[in-house]
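Supplementary Methods, section 5.1.

A reviewer requested that the exact input to the structure prediction be made available. We therefore reproduce it here, unchanged from the version used in the analyses.
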Amino acid sequence: MAIIYHKANQQLPQDLSALGNLKVAIQENSAATTSQDVNVKSVSGVAQTARDWSSDLSNLPLIKAKTDNLDTALSTRATEATLSGVKTQTDKLSFDVGNALKIQNPPNLDTALSTRASETTLASVNTKIGNIEADADALTNDAIKGVLRTLGDAGATPANNTGKTVLARLVDIQDQLKLERWGKNIEPAWVHGAETTNPADGTALVTKAVSAAKTGFIYGFYITSAEARDFKINWTSGGVAKSIRIVHASKGTMFFTDKTPVNEGLGADASTNITITNVGAGAGIFQAGLLFAEV
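The structure derived from this sequence is encoded token-by-token as follows.
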């Protein structure tokens, strides 16, 4: 234990006698070390106030827990120059009175969003486009020609023409070409039947329905047969069943078209069916098609 001698006031510590003996007993702890409470009353003549350091010491683990977070070299952190560059950019920001960041609208956003088309409007437009597509798919040649004639009649009439526009005359030329090719102002189209295996007697290998208020005409047919067999083209005209027998002398395909329909003068009635059927049960694969038009 160190003995402190106060030279300034020529006094020995209070715990010592005039002969330098300790006035208090030395206490020994379990670790065979000695301890003694010492009160420091002054340091370099400055009086010291006694205080309990236990609360200070209890904060040491908390301080250590914080300093443990300093787990990387300071030299790897942002420099003053880097932070200065960041500050230069943040200084460009401005805030309103409520400390909310002010953001300028891009120059192209020059009108209120509420004035633009809503989801409901766009959905309605999409529906209308779908309807237009459906109507376009349903247009027939006659309907298209009617539109063209309307457009043509609404156009300017050349002075040297006989009251018709160029567009209307083109429609007339198209109609004339059809008349020359098919004998009627029509454009026949093929109707194909699927392959049929081992058809029973009277099986319809292909069927075409005549539209309401129309008359159907047969401008051609094809029949593929796996054997020699007879076939019939069947329709109804004037309420009476009609048919034409087609004889296949051997297996193969028969193909026929002509500008004059095979049922000329006996057009198929509206809302009836035109069919090709086999006579007798067939063995093998059969198929048939019709070249059909209606007026």
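The first strand starts at residue 27 and ends at 28. These observations are discussed further in the main text.
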